[in-house]
Amino acid sequence: MAMTADGKVATAGREVTTFGSPADQRALYALRATADAILCGARTVEETGATLGTGDPAFARSRRRAGRSSAALRVVVSGSASLSSDAALWSHPGAPIVVLTSGKALDREHERLRSLGAQVWQSPGDRIDFPQALAWLGREFGVRRLVVEGGGQLNAALLAADQVDELRVTWVPRIFGGQASPTLADGPLAYTLADAVKFRCVRMRSVGEERFLRFLRDRWQGASLPDRGVISLPDESTPPPA
Ligand SMILES: NC(=O)c1ccc[n+]([C@@H]2O[C@H](COP(=O)([O-])OP(=O)(O)OC[C@H]3O[C@@H](n4cnc5c(N)ncnc54)[C@H](OP(=O)(O)O)[C@@H]3O)[C@@H](O)[C@H]2O)c1
């Protein structure tokens, strides 16, 4: 996620412009290239026109060389199944699209999403049970490494469900300010300091005026996540593989 000095990930007007540099964009695609699936909230998909694609064809080649499919599975979280039929990803060819919904979603909305080509998974109950949802993605599609691309509501829900192992932040020297601008984690997480979700910073690199930060949950020792099968991650400054 690209984040300002005051923790914001978009302006209050939610204008659709990336405020990260081209290096930040490259880092995003480099990370996607390592993922079995990309996960995104419905409002991010709609507002940013995200297609959750692979980007430069070189990334697809590097995926295939690493034994992965050409493109990561595209997964959107939309509890009420409100994800717009006009969202750009529907018309962008690529990996299959999965929508995760909750018991609040109406059957007719499920049908609409299916008719657009999505596979739908519905969580029991009014809230999405993320451990169950991720376990299903693992069984159904072999997803072991999931890259989450926000927005803040989805991030907060995953943090609250203790499903986040690693955080990548591109820290941009801007301030958006105010309470209306979306933040990295837009949901109640810590009422007291003791409730804070704790990470360790394991890397910081400077590229131009930005800082590329990598954090691991404090439960992980060393710089890798051996139990999840992640051995190494690409360096954002490396050019795309030929
Ligand atoms: N700077 C960056 O790197 C970056 C990255 C991504 C996004 N953004 C910005 O973030 C903003 C969007 O973020 P956002 O927080 O408003 O929205 P979001 O998290 O992208 O999407 C919110 C929607 O996703 C579904 N959802 C999320 N969490 C859920 C949960 N726990 N249970 C059920 N459904 C859930 C709901 O859909 P339903 O309404 O269908 O129930 C909810 O309305 C945009 O302005 C975007 O530009 C910035």
Concise structural overview:
The protein has 242 residues and is of the alpha/beta class.
The main sheet comes to: 5 strands, parallel
Strand content: 15-25%
**CATH H-tier superfamily:** Dihydrofolate Reductase, subunit A
Low-pLDDT windows of residues: 226-242
**The CATH topology, please?**
Dihydrofolate Reductase, subunit A
Bound molecules: NADP nicotinamide-adenine-dinucleotide phosphate
Question: How are the strands of the largest sheet arranged?
Answer: 5-4-3-2-6
Distance between the termini: 26 Å
Class from helix and strand fractions: alpha/beta
CATH class: Alpha Beta
CATH architecture: 3-Layer(aba) Sandwich
- The number of distinct helices, counting runs of at least 4 residues, comes to 6
How many E-type strands?
9
Written description of the protein model:
It is a single chain. With 242 residues, this protein is of the alpha/beta class. It has one domain: Dihydrofolate Reductase, subunit A, CATH 3.40.430. Helices cover 24% and strands 20% of the residues. The chain is built from 6 helices and 9 strands. The strands form 2 sheets. A 5-stranded parallel β-sheet has the order 5-4-3-2-6. A 4-stranded mixed β-sheet has the order 1-7-9-8, with no helix packed on it. Strand 4 (97-101), helix 4 and strand 5 (119-122) form a beta-alpha-beta unit. The radius of gyration is 17 Å and the shape is globular. It binds NADP nicotinamide-adenine-dinucleotide phosphate (NAP).
